[in-house]
LacI family DNA-binding transcriptional regulator
Amino acid sequence: MKKPSLIPHAQAGASGIRDLAARLGISIGTVSRALNDKPDVNPETRKRVIAAASELGYVPQQSGRSLRKGATHNIGLLWEIPEGRAAYGEPFFLSLFGGTQQVLSARGYDLVIMPDQPGATADPLARLRRIIQQRQVDALILPWTRTMDPRLDYLAEVGIPFVALGRSRSGGPHPWIDLDFEQAGEFATARFIAAGHRRIAIAIPADSLMQKRFFLAGYRRALKAAGLPFERALVAEGHVTPAGGYAAATRLLDVIPRPTAMLAIDSSMAVGIYRRLAELGLSCGQDVAVIGGVHDTPMTEFLVPALTCFSLDTVALGRRLAEILLARLDSKANPAGELWPIVLVERQSDRID
Amino acid sequence: MKKPSLIPHAQAGASGIRDLAARLGISIGTVSRALNDKPDVNPETRKRVIAAASELGYVPQQSGRSLRKGATHNIGLLWEIPEGRAAYGEPFFLSLFGGTQQVLSARGYDLVIMPDQPGATADPLARLRRIIQQRQVDALILPWTRTMDPRLDYLAEVGIPFVALGRSRSGGPHPWIDLDFEQAGEFATARFIAAGHRRIAIAIPADSLMQKRFFLAGYRRALKAAGLPFERALVAEGHVTPAGGYAAATRLLDVIPRPTAMLAIDSSMAVGIYRRLAELGLSCGQDVAVIGGVHDTPMTEFLVPALTCFSLDTVALGRRLAEILLARLDSKANPAGELWPIVLVERQSDRID
DNA sequence: CATAACGTCGTAAACGTTTACGGACTAGTC
DNA sequence: GACTAGTCCGTAAACGTTTACGACGTTATG
């Protein structure tokens, strides 16, 4: 009598390579070879095996397979979930995930997103450690690096392949893609200056994200190039959320003389800026020009006035991240970085008309 | 000589329960028992094992463990990623994920989010099948069910424990949580009516989501209760995005006589509605009252005017989903459903003042 | 005809872990 | 002292798969 399966939700009929082999009257070795495209198997037999497998719905079980092969064919993406309700849920990521999964699955890999709450446990690296030590994935994608990023140090130490979204000072050499926030900050600021603005405020994250440094650097560079002074009072740090944008605008618009232009690092902050402008009876575009930053969410063009902000093909970004990682896994590639330009979408919020 | 590990990114020093046992001069069985809180082990030995494990950074490898135990201690969440850039990236989910992960990890489980693109492959269930057949998870969370949902039928067939967000006509009995869209639709409509509105438009998804049916049913119920006629022309179907809201508003505001109130199923549509109102020179609140639906994103209170919409403790929702699933895994619970009320947050968009 | 080469397949070991079973002690009981 | 009970631990068999190796039969080669 067959022992009941340990697996609680075992399917009724199909299960195991053994059953499949028995049903076909061949050995499990042959079945495995047939399904894995190994050479030493009769084309005729292979056909029969594949047919039977699809009929019985047999798919090799992950744990057995990866135990033996030492690879899971899963690519992890460590996703930091901010605590509480305050967070803005980056629509950005959805399409990025789509692009990544698309490329990965074409190569037999799967994307699994592992939510992480660094603040929830004593050890901020707890989840990452578990993922690595339990060998849950073959490689990792790490979105939004920080200036000093212990995650990168840890990953470098254990030597697992990964690709980072964003540069960092931490960790060893590794492949990355970063958006050129410096160029973006410079471009937007220069555009303001060219339009005649002299007092330009900027809103950036309070966090230690790398983006912040670069964005601010670009801003300063443009100021300097135009011979304008850098004023601390025109820089506001806050959450990258509508609430953060509101708080920043509240502070910045109180500065005397009042800034005539505002630059936010992310379009989510622009919503809060819009509100503060309305409260003060200021017209967005007319009295104060606004440029929202990365990213161009599905919402920005429907704001009133439509938000001028930076755009980016997030699907392509997701795809490229996957490609870089796959190349790294094939070890055909040396760790290189890619700096992606982000282009401005001109809409209404920075126009006086 | 030790053979090189098959695992590409094997850590330098630590590896395997064998090394740990050898180092302590005891058998691997004892080590395993010590780490798994099994009874038959000397407290003194247990301490030594735990100390050594944490020193060497030993954590049991997932594949070996789950192969033997027939359980992965992973809970999957199948996340449908819409194709293309058009989609609105539900900020809603971020906090939900946080709540779920929090509860699960307290019980030794982990949440893994598996992005799925049903349209990308010939078989829309491809990814779900792979997850189940490869035994990648012990249980599943399925957000946003449809009226007819093949995923539910499949899950019922294979008998894996799961909890759904949303009801459905498909599948067998299973635990679920749903938001009471019917009550929400009815409440908002009745509120409009009480404020004197007689021509009330509604924007719902074109999709076959269950939410749509219930929301519309509530809307109709309130109309009926007030003796108002139901007009097809006042119902617009579209994408649950700002663009969808814009398109819906464009159609609805052309109806003669023009509606004086608009109800959207989701606050993301409200952004598009706002824009269309502005384009027509109509004042939101004054000329046309607007109530956005579920969910109250971080943005809604910063819109101008602040959006009256339904709110929901998404963190609690995520937590409860996890709890229900855990109860189901302990098989202490029979499949029951929970209907969560969603309360209206009164702000400015539906006020005439 | 002897041998080599080839194509196809079965056998069995391995991957890392958990756990049923039994053995070796010690302590307690009559 | 013989027995039982209890404590702790080692042994070894599983879990499902992949793959190195060798065996077998057939065909080509000399």
In short: The radius of gyration of chain A is 26 Å. Chain A has three domains: 16-60, 74-179+315-342, 181-310. The first helix of chain A runs from residue 16 to 24.
